[in-house]
From TrEMBL:
Gene3D superfamilies: 3.90.550.50. This is Hexosyltransferase. Keywords: Glycoprotein, Golgi apparatus, Membrane, Signal-anchor, Transferase, Transmembrane, Transmembrane helix. Belongs to the chondroitin N-acetylgalactosaminyltransferase family. It is found in: Golgi apparatus, Golgi stack membrane. Its main location: Golgi. Residues 51-60 have a biased composition (Pro residues).
Length: 766
């Protein structure tokens, strides 16, 4: 038995031997943790039970921190619940919120640029500055001492009326503080004989802290002054922070009266030093303000010094042509830097892609550009458009072939030229290519990467020995999507009054009641800032019998009922007699009866007005800038879509059984002043040929006779019930054809039409 027990014990130990280190580690860890817990508990008890006053806090620590609570510096990080209380004795006042969160949070724009100019250089150097770098800065103004200066085109000029240099600087600083001091973080002051690299200046301010008082530029010593004090040379420009400008403004009057100087930059530097104790510096927070002084008869194209290439500002620029040459040279330098950065990034991408599971096969072409879109079904396939050097075989109007012109022709010419240039860069000096003919061209827009091109080129290849040979070569090119930029737009609000204009014919009488009901419910009941004007279009025959039978008597009665229900509302109407209701002629009549600042919404009788769309009409229409032509959603014929079944009424399906009618231009939002300007140009073009107006719509007037942006987009807020429109054959062929297409495409989708034909064939066969 003893031997058996020993054998069993040995078997157990051999089985537990692999787990012995784990068991020993667990037991040792538990023992140490229990021992430490007993020590901590004992120390805590002693601390809590110790008699006498509490121990003083550590040196330099606040009392709250000694007690385990956050100190005064951490109060902002502790959440606080502020109870809402409204005095019942005071009337309720609606809180007005700002339109942009940037305004409410107090954000500022980044950079404001002021250019000091004079009578002698306003039309020369100032114009050169405006044509080279002005459009790269977010906001740039020109300041001069002239009293009544003629402003060159495209420039914003502030005239102070005194040509003394010190007075000009004083008035400029006052003006900047008064009008822009609360809107911008940085202020860059330069002269018109200075060339500044706009992109470098903008990059500089993004690396500087806005909380410091900054006076940055080319530091110069005062003549006979303190060796430590420096002022920023005005010829090379200088940068001021917003905090410094706010502190400097109260002392400008004292500086004007007490400081005597000939140079305005010295005067400003002395003012900043005397009253703020801040001297000019050429480097700050690791950022250097590099400048370059041009010598006489300098040729910018031959300047290869690092100091020149790194310069933010170059001075003095003596003439306009030199300014343009400097801009060309610095643009070339910046472009070479960008190309080198692209090559470096592409090399890094190749090296890193080789380490991925896909290996070198995972490298996309071009390197660094997104891979082409991969469709998941045949409905997502992006089609290619075929073109030649003369024609395009995918036309906007749906025709199979149209002439290549305008932007499309320029695009094709540029892409062919770029293809030949890339081939020569690749094969030179062994071969030299020249284009003979474009055999085939294909292009498509891939939203994930940009515009793709495939070209079949007939080329003539010449060798170094003079031999030539004609060959065909296929090349592929990509015009990638560049950096997305936010286009600056004028500020608009939703408080603008909208003037609805509704033309009515005899064929529209059945739909007027629904239009007026929706207008009353969505605008009059909600007190929306919108008015309505009706335009009764009488046929000559109906106009002669209006004394006996007025075809619009029922509509006028409905308007009278609305005016009785809403006492403060007046709905005027205008009667017009015509056989051809031209949209332009009708708008001419309405335009003359309203002020120039009126915002028109040209509606149709099938439109269901709602507040959501009216707000978008206000926001998308900008006076002297943009007009809005919404594309309404047209519901299909319910007899074909549902075929006796119940119509879908859920809110999620309200845009399901229909389509956006791109053939209709009946709805439009525009300002009366913009229409009158475009209409004046149209009148000068057509002279007295009024029959031309019958072939035009308001959209054509703005498209061909205004320089405004035409914003045309789908509008889900405009939903129209199905109805078969009556197309007037007396209109132009294009307008009549567009109306017929709108009716045909508005019947039903292809699947619904196919099902209807299938059911009809089945019914006929039985």
């Amino acid at each position: 038995p003893a031997v058996a027990a020993a054998m069993r014990l040995g078997a157990v130990l051999s089985a537990l031997r692999p787990a012995l280190p784990l068991l020993l580690g667990l037991s040792l860890g538990c023992s140490l943790s229990l021992l430490r817990a007993s020590w901590s508990h004992g120390a805590a008890e002693e601390r809590c039970l110790a008699p006498g006053p509490p121990a003083p806090p550590a040196r330099g620590a606040p009392p709250e921190a000694a007690e385990g609570r956050p100190g005064p510096g951490h109060e902002d990080f502790r959440p606080r619940i502020v109870p809402y209380y409204r005095d019942p004795n005071k009337p309720y006042k609606k809180v007005l919120r700002t339109r942009y969160i940037q305004t409410e949070l107090g954000f500022h724009e980044r950079l404001f640029v002021a250019v000091l100019t004079s009578k002698a250089t306003l039309n020369t150097l100032a114009v050169a500055v405006n044509k080279t770098v002005a459009h790269h800065f977010p906001r740039l103004l020109y300041f001069t001492g002239l009293r009544s200066a003629k402003v060159p085109h495209g420039m914003v000029l502030v005239a102070h009326g005194d040509e003394r240099p010190i007075w000009l600087m004083y008035e400029t600083m006052n003006y900047i503080h008064q009008h822009f001091g609360s809107d911008y973080d940085w202020f860059y002051i330069m002269q018109d004989d200075t060339y500044a690299q706009a992109e470098q200046v903008k990059a500089l301010v993004t690396h500087l802290s806005i909380n410091q008082d900054v006076y940055l530029g080319r530091a110069e010593e005062f003549i006979g002054g303190d060796e430590q004090a420096r002022y920023c040379h005005g010829g090379f420009g200088y940068l001021l922070s917003r905090s410094l400008l706010l502190k400097l403004h109260p002392h400008l009057d004292s500086c004007r009266n007490e400081i005597l100087s000939v140079r305005p930059d010295e005067w400003l530097g002395r003012c900043i030093i005397d009253f703020l104790g801040i001297t000019c510096v050429s480097q700050l927070q690791g950022q250097h303000y590099h400048t370059y002084e041009l010598a006489k008869n300098t040729e910018p194209e031959k300047e290869e010094e690092e100091e020149f290439q790194a310069a933010l500002a170059v001075h003095p620029v003596s003439e306009m042509t030199l300014m343009y040459r400097l801009h060309k040279q610095f643009s070339r330098i910046q472009l070479d830097r960008v190309y080198q950065e692209i090559q470096d990034l592409q090399m890094q991408i190749r090296n890193l892609t080789a380490l991925t599971p896909a290996g070198e096969a995972g490298v996309t072409w071009p390197v660094g550009i997104n891979a082409p879109f991969l469709p998941k079904s045949r409905f997502e396939v992006i089609s290619w458009d075929y073109f030649t050097e003369q024609h395009l075989f995918s036309c906007p109007d749906g025709s199979p072939k149209c002439e290549l012109s305008g932007a499309s022709k320029a695009d094709v010419s540029e892409i062919i030229e770029s293809a030949v240039e890339q081939l020569n860069r690749l094969y030179q000096p062994l071969l030299r290519f020249s284009k003979r003919q474009l055999l085939n061209g294909y292009r498509r827009f891939d939203p994930t990467r940009g515009m793709e091109y495939t070209l079949d080129l007939l080329l003539e290849a010449a060798t170094q020995k003079g031999h030539s040979h004609v060959l065909a070569k296929r090349v592929s090119l990509v015009r990638p999507l560049s950096k997305v930029e936010i286009i600056p737009m004028p500020y608009v609000t939703e408080a603008t009054r909208v003037q609805l204009v509704l033309p009515l014919t005899v064929q529209d009488l059945d739909f007027v009641a629904n239009f007026l009901d929706m207008f009353a419910m969505n605008t009059l009941d909600t007190h929306d800032n919108a008015l309505l004007t009706l335009l009764f279009i009488y046929h000559p025959y109906d106009a002669q019998r209006v004394g006996q039978v007025d075809v619009f008597a029922g509509v006028k009665a409905m308007v009278g009922e609305l005016e009785k229900r809403y006492a403060e509302v007046k709905i005027p109407w205008i009667s017009v007699k015509t056989e051809v209701p031209s949209q332009v002629k009708l708008m001419d009549i309405v335009s003359k009866k309203h002020p120039v600042d009126t915002l028109f919404f040209l509606a149709s009788v099938w439109t269901e007005i709602n507040m959501e769309f009216l707000n978008r009409c206000r926001m998308n229409t900008i006076s002297n800038w943009q007009v809005f032509f919404p594309v309404h959603f047209q519901e299909f014929n319910p007899a074909l879509v549902y075929r006796g079944e119940q119509t879908a009424s859920s809110n999620t399906d309200f845009l399901r059984d229909g389509h956006f009618d791109r053939h209709s231009f009946a709805e439009a939002c525009f300002y009366n002043s913009d229409y009158m300007t475009a209409r004046t140009k149209l009148a000068a073009d057509i002279l007295d040929r009024d029959e031309v107006l019958e072939s035009m719509e308001v959209f054509d007037v703005f498209l061909h006779y205004s320089g405004l942006h035409l914003f045309r987009a789908v509008e889900p807020g405009l939903v129209q019930k199905y109805t078969l429109r009556s197309c007037n054959p007396r209109l132009s062929e294009e307008l009549y054809h567009r109306c017929v297409l709108s009716n045909l495409e508005g019947l039903a989708s292809r699947s619904h039409l196919a099902m209807a034909l299938f059911e009809q064939e089945q019914a006929n066969s039985t």
